[in-house]
Known about the structure:
- It is a single chain.
- This protein is an alpha/beta fold.
- It contains nine helices and eleven strands.
- Helix 1 links the parallel strand 1 (2-6) and strand 2.
- Helix 1 crosses helix 2, helix 1 packs parallel to helix 9 (261-271) and helix 2 (63-72) packs parallel to helix 3.
- The radius of gyration is 18 Å and the shape is globular.
Amino acid sequence: MRIAVxxxxxxxxxxxxxxxxxxxxxxxxxxxxxxxxxxxxxxxxPYPAGGDLPREYGRTLDPFVALGQAAAVTERLGLGTGITxxxxxxxxxxxxxIATVDHLSGxxxxxxxxxxxxAEEAADHAVDWRKRRALVRDRMALMxxxxxxxxxxxxxxxxxxxxxxxxxxxxxxRPRTLVGGAAGPKLFTHICEYADGWLPIxxxxxxETLPALRTAWSDAGRDPSTLQxxxxxxxxxxxxxxxxxxLGIEEVVARLPPAGETEILRVLDEYGAFVS
Length: 276
């Protein structure tokens, strides 16, 4: 099983280059980074995990800039977002960022896609909260048009682009795309429509939810062998990883604390027992 990691990299943590080098040298499969552009002080959206919002949420590095640094000092390490708040981006600019990181890394980018939980953050990006899922679907389609081999126009509900020359292209036509979120028919529809699989946070309840996703995937005409499910922000244990393996899962993203170099290296030593 491939073991990747995720971390809230901030201006107070280990640097992207130091972490990426350590991960590659130790045999980890990848580095996934979250995204928050800002956290409004006047916030009514509850923190999904409960309690006070941790400090690191308002201090995150831009994931694509940080992943670009990680790409520059590694050769094999996978690079991913966990997740990109697609609704909060201009899709033409975002398509260029994604394609550039994928091109410069030799096709190592995984695009984690999410819909967000912080309504105030999204509002500052002029996102209508009730329409954010439809907006993400629309922007994904627009980006796919820009990544197409030949100039391709797109006219959608929320945006459009003329047939354009847009380079570089993602190495494999488009990056591997995983959609994050809680299990349910709406989420599974998005996954089956424009993604390669699911990025479930924590990985709980997969014995019950995976069959439903696999059925939806097959009903959508997708090849059952191509569905990828990658449990995200997991605290790994031997039993948990064995359970995932029984479910046919091949990659897990373990959670690192938003800490400095000394603490991160200690946790990597601990997680190293799971890296084969």
